[in-house]
Amino acid sequence: MSGWQPVRRTRAFEDVIARIEERIAGDGLTVGDRLPGERQLAEQLQVSRSSVREAMRVLETLGVVSSQVGRGPDAGAVLTARPAGALTDLLRLHLGLASLSLEEVIDARLMIEQWSAARAAGHGADLSALSDALERMDQAATAEDFVEHDTAFHVAIAEASGNRLIAAMMRSLRDSVRRYAIEAVERLGDTGGLMADHHLIRQAIASGSPSEASAAVETHLRRAYPDIFRIPVTSGPPGADDRGRSEDQARSEDRGRADG
Questions:
Q1: Residue 40: CB partners within 8 Å, gap ≥ 6?
Q2: How far apart are CA 119 and CA 131, in angstroms?
Q3: Residue ranges of the chain with pLDDT lower than 50?
């Protein structure tokens, strides 16, 4: 047996997607630009309108385009930017199918948010969005309201890092576990501890201390998801002094020094 498999011919709609990608890269198309209408695009690419329609459905699902109904200059899909929405849908689906565990999602969130908080602390980011979210959380009347503004707070940390992809990933991670977050807040009942953590995170970022900001994030996630952090976190994002060291590890090291 040779082990080689026959080459699969691409389907027409995949070719349509590839051509659109080429035009975006080559012509510098950006958010808000309009693609040709379905009929025009089918004629230019010499494919059926059904192939164009299928390609647009795929791109809309991925958050790349927004379908528009119209004729003449109003025809054609508009390029959009909704990466977080597509990622959220994908993560939520895999959580539901149990192909991803909640533990894996929270681990990813820990790494992303520690890096984001450290990065924001390192370059003096604007923290007005964090302050606004804190105020709204303090006024929240329900667990749902609290989680909505809690999400805004943590996404604002990612946005303060200055990396848009990190921010989109963070929003996706938070949105995908929204139901779990609401249940966690309801179990806690009193959100005073969570609010204290949030203020410490903001204070650490504002003080310009990457290591303190990173540690404050870990402390907060341990409080919010105690069942997830039964095993100490032994490493964090690279580049920050001691930012991945867990509280358990720190206590162990302190005991060792005292014994010595």
A1: 75, 76
A2: 18
A3: 1, 231, 233-260
8: Cβ contacts below 8 Å, ≥ 6 apart: none
User: How many CA atoms does the CB half-sphere of 198 hold within 13 Å?
Assistant: 28
Other Cβ atoms within 10 Å of 51 Cβ, number: 19
Place of tokens 């309801």: 186
Closest CA to 177 of 93, 116, 92, 107: 92
CA–CA gap between residue 22 and residue 123 (Å, rounded): 36
3-state helix, strand and coil shares in percent for the chain, rounded to the nearest 5: 65, 0, 30
Is the C-alpha dihedral spanning 105, 107, 111, 116 positive or negative? positive
DSSP state of 34: B
- The C-alpha atoms of residue 121 and residue 214 are separated, in whole angstroms, by 9
Q: Can you tell me which residue has the tokens 């310009």?
A: 208
Residues in the chain: 260
Q: Which amino acid is at 179?
A: R
Contact 228, 101 (CB under 8 A): no
Integer Cα distance of 112 and 158 in angstroms: 8
Q: How far apart are CA 151 and CA 178, in angstroms?
A: 9
- At position 114, the amino acid (one-letter code) is Q
pTM over 0.85, yes/no: no
